[in-house]
Amino acid sequence: MNDLPPILVVDDEPRSVEVMARVLREEFDVHVANGAEAALAVLNAHWIQAIFCDQRMPGMTGVKLLADVRQRWPDIVRIIVTGYTDPDDMIEAINEAGIYQYITKPWHPDQLLLAARNATQLFAMQREHDRLSLELRLARPAVEKRLVRERALVRETYHFEALVRTQGSPLNETCHQAAKAATFDIPVLIQGETGTGKELLARAIHYASQRASGPFLAVNCGAIPDTLLESELFGHKKGSFTGAHANRRGLLEEADGGTLLLDEIGDISPAFQVKLLRFLQEGEIRAVGANESRRADVRILSATHRDLREEVRAGRFREDLYFRLAAMALTMPPLRKRPGDVRVLADHLLDTLSARHGRRVHGFTAEAMTCLMDYDWPGNVRELQNEVLRMLVLTEGDLLGADLLSPGVLHRVAGARASGHADGEAMESPTLSTPESGPLQERIERIEAQILMETIVRCRWNKSRAAKELGLSRVGLRAKLERYGIAPDAGRETIQ
Predict the structure, then answer these.
(1) What is the rounded CA–CA span in Å between residue 39 and residue 98?
(2) pLDDT given for residue 263 in this prediction
(3) Of 441, 446, 472, which Cα lies nearest the Cα of 459?
(4) Most buried residue among 106, 118, 122, 403 by CB atoms closer than 10 A?
(5) Does residue 355 share a domain with residue 318?
(6) For the region Disordered, what residue ranges are annotated (predicted)?
(7) CATH code assigned at 59
């Protein structure tokens, strides 16, 4: 079977057909016809990619023939060969028959071959375009269904219930207020300590709003210098500063129709506060180095670990900017004020992390969970996540035990218990702490109890190992544990 691209040469002069066919047969499967009727017969019998047709032929001109071909076989690339160069004739041919190219006589063999190569390549490109267009039309319903599913999954992932908490959690009131604010297209300020989930709350607000189908973008204002932050938000023109090698759209323009979260807004400089205030007042952005302004329809959410009212009173943050950002202000409570949420959060994080890393475990031991709930979590949910991940990495069993907790957590939990703060009241230091008041003997005993608690937990209640580490006999260790009331959780088997 001949794999060369098939083309047709049409001319009423046999000598011209023979010469053209001889040149083109070097690279093509050439069919010939000595007139319009013969050409139509060839086209009915064979698959043709391109036609070279003489213009002046008896009965039917080349243009008339190619116009007919255009109606019946529109994919075939049509080339007219003529000895006449009247521009009016060429315009008529191009308009009436959709001519791809015309070649004037006398032609050069290389010119003929080049025209044939380009024509067959164009034919192949047209066919590929048609194939891809058909595939796209057939796939569009499936793609649209997939996009709908993905949007639903995103909304399910970033909704207010995704902020894990118990029924009596202090976070419930914050989420209730945020859900109400989401339905109003107003700027919202979210305040709270680092790691409390401010960005998660911002995403939940976005996906509960009328802008849910638009983009959600976030930028950490505190991590970027003023000059770069202006370019990041407003964009820049090519050559406006060193390194600006091309025009760049800013995040405010990218977020048009959606939401932009300005994280750590309390860290921006007074000079940049003025630039941001202008956008919030006018709704216009001007790229760095540009002369014209553009409008952007963006909902602004902002977040900060600072107390912005105090920053306003101290003169470090503009009052007018504060009120532009805080049409409604929300506060994310720290984890130490949500002790009831620690258990469900730890279980949720363990499920998520174990699935992500392919390490399945059954949960926490009772003692490990008690330690997690007794700790004050100064790093909030982010610290809890890191602690659960550490325990997951180190475990060799199906349960995460207290011995897997990091030294800092064990120190503070042991210190709190030894000081009588079993409810998880915050300690000032993550290391072994010295009581600040009380008789000397009482202070010494509290330190001793803290050391005993930390060591016995780390040794997984193996009294022989703990006694050896502390330089005590097993009898002496047991006596001290009984004296301070240090005992394992019910149901734990201890190693003597």
Answers:
(1) 18
(2) 95
(3) 472
(4) 403
(5) no
(6) 420-440
(7) 3.40.50.2300
- Are residue 244 and residue 363 in the same domain, yes or no? no
Q: 340 near 171, Cβ under 8 Å?
A: no
- Cα separation, 245 vs 363, whole angstroms: 53
**Residue 213 belongs to what domain range?**
160-333
Residues 455 and 323 occupy one common structural domain:
no
With b for 16 or more beta-carbon neighbours within 10 A and e for fewer, the 436-445 pattern comes to eeeeeeeeeb
Domain annotation covers residue 353: yes
CATH number, domain with residue 262? 3.40.50.300
Report the pLDDT value the prediction gives residue 174, as an integer from 0 to 100. Answer: 94
Of 274, 329, 279, the C-alpha closest to 306 is 329
Phi, psi of 104 (to 5 degrees): -90, 150
What tens digit of pLDDT does each residue of 312-328 get?
999 999 999 999 999 99
**Prediction pTM value:** 0.60
User: What is the domain count for the chain?
Assistant: 3
Q: What sign has the CA pseudo-torsion 381, 382, 385, 390?
A: negative
In a domain, 15, yes or no: yes
Task: Please tell me the distance from the alpha carbon of residue 278 to that of residue 282, in angstroms, as a whole number.
Answer: 6
Q: What is the pLDDT of residues 175-224, one digit of tens each?
A: 999 999 999 999 999 999 999 999 999 999 999 999 998 999 999 998 88
Residue 131 falls inside a structural domain: no
In this predicted structure, the answer to whether residue 424 has a pLDDT above a threshold of 50 is no
Q: What angle do CA 21, 24, 27 make, to 5 degrees?
A: 140
Higher pLDDT, 132 or 425: 132
Is the CB of residue 106 less than 8 Å from the CB of residue 118? Answer: no
* Tokens coding 118: 């380009």
Cβ atoms 177, 332 nearer than 8 A:
no
CATH of the domain at 424: 1.10.8.60
pLDDT tens, position by position, 362-416:
999 988 898 899 899 999 999 999 999 999 999 988 999 888 888 888 877 776 6
CB 375 within 8 A of CB 409: yes
* Residue 137 within a domain: no
Last residue of a domain, one of 302, 333, 364: 333
* Alpha helices per DSSP H over 53-207: 62-72, 87-97, 109-157, 171-182, 198-207
Q: Who's near 446: CB < 8 A, 6+ residues apart?
A: 418, 419, 435, 438
Same-domain status, 193 and 322:
yes
**pLDDT value of residue 154:** 57
In angstroms, the Cα distances linking 298 to 38, 178, 186, 329, 440 are 66, 18, 10, 18, 62
pLDDT in tens, 338-351: 988 999 999 999 99
* Pair 330, 191: CB distance under 8 Å: yes
Q: Count the neighbouring beta carbons within 10 Å of the beta carbon of residue 53.
A: 26
Bond from prior residue into 109 cis (ω within 30 degrees of 0): no
